[in-house]
TrEMBL record:
GO terms for molecular function: 4 iron, 4 sulfur cluster binding; metal ion binding. Residues 316-345, 346-374 form the 4Fe-4S ferredoxin-type domain. This is Ferredoxin. PROSITE patterns: 4FE4S_FER_1, 4FE4S_FER_2. The keyword Iron applies. Pfam families: DUF362, Fer4_10. The keyword Translocase does not apply. Ferredoxins are iron-sulfur proteins that transfer electrons in a wide variety of metabolic reactions. Keywords: 4Fe-4S, Iron, Iron-sulfur, Metal-binding.
Length: 379
């Protein structure tokens, strides 16, 4: 059992965040492992081109505080890297670095922003469902990986925290391929655990000063949760985060799969925390795609027979708000089922092939795709 450090952090004022990060380093004795000469990669959640105050990406104040602390220890080789959603290209990265505040950090702190869009296959012979991954090169070449996640809900995986953040180590449009290969949530999350075991981040920080509730990871609403987290184990961290957002662990398949492998327990009560007490938000809004286990209402012997029909009728589906859609095509580009077409400058979803992965919802820059529950569920 590894420690999860919690620090109550009221705002993103740089001084406040600096103190918070210093406290995590001290509590977890991280100064002893971050030695001068190591090649460090910071992997913040940079999902898309959004400003920090929109709460979709890891806040730059936290990224900068980690850089500052590393530099105070004499670490000079620091690169910020992520593969956001969409095409993995230099122009896309440049725009995202600028919008998310990473460009300013690089200039102020003299650290590198990754521009290498190559990837390398890394095998994972012990993988349960996936035996290897193409990973972006800076991750493969790093001596030390620091993941910086953002606490958000996630329409497909339920929780976007420490484990889910590593999906950004897979380059660009290879990500939708994984949704296509693993359309079932449990399999997809099992793949995420395999990925986490392949990347093996050395430390993970989580920005939970302001989190995202509701239809995360990009269309939810912001919620002040007032904490930062740090831990060596991404699994223990997600267990703690599930308690913060009051999400049952048995419905969070990254945790279920990790627990089945003995990487963590199923009970948040088992997490060993240090620092400030964990704050819990019992009314934290879950994604509309989640929260009802339809099959629980069906007698077990009938489940295999009725499951396809129940899924087709009752699983919430993505729907385009035509008045908001700007016809940019990012949803179609990210759709693993290739079931979205842009016609008359608007996105159209052909639902018969939709696998309900919600990538389109995640990648829409203007929140034009919402997740629509069958009205029967609102009765
Ligand atoms: S339409 Fe949206 S939810 Fe359906 S498969 Fe495509 S990306 Fe996934
Ligand atoms: S739905 Fe969103 S992502 Fe798709 S074309 Fe319209 S604006 Fe772009």
């Amino acid at each position: 059992m590894q420690l999860v450090s919690i620090q109550h952090t009221a705002c993103y004022e740089q001084k406040v965040i600096d103190e918070s990060v210093d406290a995590h380093f001290a509590r977890l004795h991280l100064d002893e492992i971050c030695k001068p000469g190591i090649k460090v990669v910071l992997k913040p959640n940079l999902l898309m081109k959004r400003a920090p105050e929109e709460g979709t990406t890891a806040h730059p104040a936290l990224v900068e505080a980690v850089v500052r602390h590393l530099q105070s220890l004499g670490v000079t080789d620091i690169t910020i890297a992520d593969s956001p959603g969409g095409v993995y290209s230099k122009p896309l990265l440049t725009g995202i670095y600028k919008a998310t505040g990473m460009e300013d950090i690089a200039r102020r702190r003299n650290v590198k922003l990754n521009e290498n869009i190559g990837s390398t296959y890394v095998s994972n012979p012990n993988g349960v469902i996936c035996k290897g991954f193409d990973l972006i090169n800076p991750i493969v070449e790093a001596d030390f990986i620091i993941s910086i996640a953002k606490l958000k809900t996630h329409c497909m995986a339920g929780l976007s925290g420490a484990v889910k953040n590593l999906f950004g180590c897979v380059p660009g449009l290879m990500k939708p391929e994984f949704h296509w290969r693993y359309p079932e949530e449990k399999d997809f999350c099992n793949m995420l655990v395999d990925l986490c075991e392949t990347v093996k981040p050395d430390i993970t920080f989580v920005d939970a000063v302001v989190s995202m509730e509701g239809d995360g990871p990009s269309s939810g609403s912001l919620r002040e949760t007032g904490m930062t987290f740090c831990a060596a184990s991404p699994y223990e961290l997600d267990l703690a985060l599930s308690k913060v957002i009051h999400r049952p662990t048995e419905q969070t398949y990254t945790i279920v799969n990790a627990a089945e492998r003995g990487l963590c327990s199923m009970s948040p009560e088992d997490v060993k925390v240090c620092g400030d007490p964990l704050l819990v938000y019992e009314d934290f809004k879950q994604p509309r795609s989640k929260g009802i286990d339809f099959m629980a209402f069906v007698p077990a012997p009938l489940r295999p027979v009725v499951k396809p029909a129940v899924n087709r009728l009752l699983t919430p589906r993505p729907q385009v708000k035509k008045s908001v859609c700007i016809g940019c095509g990012k949803c179609a580009e990210s759709c693993p089922a290739k079931t979205i077409r842009i016609e008359d400058r608007k996105a159209h979803i052909y639902h018969e092939n939709c696998i309900k992965c919600y990538c389109c919802h995640e990648m829409c820059p203007v929140k034009a795709i919402h997740v629509r529950r069958n009205p029967i569920l609102n009765l």
